[in-house]
Amino acid sequence: MVAVHTSIAILLVIALIIKVRIDPVISLILGSLYLGLAAGVGFAGTIEAITTGFGGIMAEVGLLIGFGVLIGALLHSTGAFRRLVGQLVQRVGAGRLPYALTSMLAVVMPSIYVDVQVVLAAPVARSASPFIGKIGLPVLASALGCGIFAGYVFVIPGLAAISIAGLLDIRLGDWLLYGVVIGLATALVSTLLMRLLFHAGGFWKPETDEEVDEAMIEQEAADRAYLTGEASTSEEALAQTEASATATESEEGVRRLPLVVLMLPILVPLLLIAFGAFAELGGWSNDVIAFFGDANMALFIGLLGAYTLSRVSAGSERTNEAMEDGFHTTGEILLITGVGGSLGAVIEATGLDKVLGDLFQADEGAPVVLSILLAWFIAAVLHLAIGSVSVAAITAAGIIAPILDSLTISPIVIGLAIASGAMFALQVNSNFFWMFKSLLGLSTKGTLKTLTLVTSVASVVSLPMVMLAAVVA
């Protein structure tokens, strides 16, 4: 009955938000209360799970969200994202932009902290969307979500990848060999399929699928002025855009700094986090490296850099305006993200993981294909229930690890199957879902059509690749 009540709670939240149009915060709390009471967590236990879940998420990502959103707002004031998008379109072309974005997130910058990636990459995706036309936003949102999680579960140093490899005693070098190939292929194929779906027409409806706040509207008005109001993909139009943009910036009193300098507030935190992660993996970390490699500290350093560059480039008045816009956006994201964490905590308190553990132990010695499917299924159900990719991956690996020796299959294949399943259908009980929604200016329905759908597609797309890996592993 725990699984049934969990399903009802998730469907209840979705129905209240989409059909009844109740605010997500209220809907999530109602879903959490129903599940806790119906599944036997109890009155006191339900309240405790809601409050501790909220507090736990805030402790984990609260500063990351605040610092990341402020960095984005400040860099917007300098015109950095507009110029970056112009450079990307010039170098790779608008048609290949989604594939470049998803590949970069999956393989070049697989982060231990997916929250860092989304707060830094979302402004780039929104600014670039006009170049792809009316479906630019859903295509790039899907590419962003798929790239982040394909890297997170398959590519070192993604937290889920490291956790699975550690729990199943898989050498990181062996995992990296398979993970990079499957992660990159999954991101590219899934992005292509999503693009074909949106191109088919009628699926994406901006009036109901997009939900942009005032700060985003102001930023995008500035972007349109910078881009001369055209989302043209031709080289000539782009050259005209660059020329007119330079004049526009000069007229607005923005000092034009080198683009590579303006991007340092993003690049430096990512490098610090990556260096700290590899130092820890290599066993040569120390207090200083851990201090600067901590995501909160790294992003604060990025925020200091963004604030300084904004003061130099845009002046103190525009910098203060950008900070105010960032604070406005941050408050909404923090509240809805925390309440999303509350629902996940209530689900975790129901003990659903024990039910799934009994399921796998009943099938020891199963054929290879069945073992892969069962590992994928358990990770997928855990993710659907708990709402956390990393927790689902870690829990699934913990369930399977004790009986791994009895399976007639390589541990790395089971690990890859867990990684594939852990991506499946990221939805409303995930705090990341609500961060993604707010940062990209999507409605709940729009986020289901992009993030939830693309992670489902990516999970299914990667499964045959895992089965193929079983042939050679």
From TrEMBL:
Keywords: Membrane, Transmembrane, Transmembrane helix. The keyword Ion transport does not apply. It comes from the Bacteria. The chain crosses the membrane at residues 6-22, 29-47, 53-76, 97-120, 140-168, 175-198, 259-281, 288-307, 327-347, 368-401, 407-429, 450-472. It holds the Pfam family GntP_permease. This is SLC13 family permease. It comes from Nocardioides renjunii.
